[in-house]
Design a protein that fits this description.
The protein has about 110 residues and is an all-alpha fold. It has one domain. Helices cover about 70% and strands about 0% of the residues. It contains seven helices and no strands. Helix 1 crosses helix 5 and helix 5 packs across helix 6. It is globular, with a radius of gyration of 14 Å.
Length: about 110
């Protein structure tokens, strides 16, 4: 699954892919809205040790990678997909926390 998330992030490096993704309607607007409300309500953006502007940029990147993930997963046989694939934003968040990759934002800030 890590390879698929990496492919989704790498695909966003192509300007055409990023433009198409930004132009398309959000595939799960309610999930994204809940994600942002939870971040704000839980004060996660203010207590994470990053300037709020950078924390918001970081979350925007996470949402974009989550939006790209289903495009990558669509190339796999359905039998190989875990039911968790129905929630790409949760997968991206879990991968960043679980593998310690969320530290990249602190590296960028420093």
């Amino acid at each position: 699954m890590l390879n698929e998330r990496s492919a989704a992030a790498t695909a966003l490096c192509q300007p055409e892919a990023l433009e198409a993704l930004l132009a398309a309607p959000a595939p799960a607007p309610r999930a994204e809205a809940f994600y942002l409300r939870a971040l704000i309500h839980g004060h996660a953006l203010a207590i994470g040790g990053l300037p709020i502007s950078l924390a918001l940029h970081d979350r925007a990147v996470r949402v974009l990678v989550a939006r790209a993930l289903p495009l990558v997963l669509a190339t796999l046989p359905p039998a190989e997909l875990d039911p968790a694939c129905a929630h790409p934003l949760a997968l991206v968040e879990a991968m960043l926390r679980g593998h310690g990759l969320d530290a990249y934002a602190h590296d960028v800030a420093g």
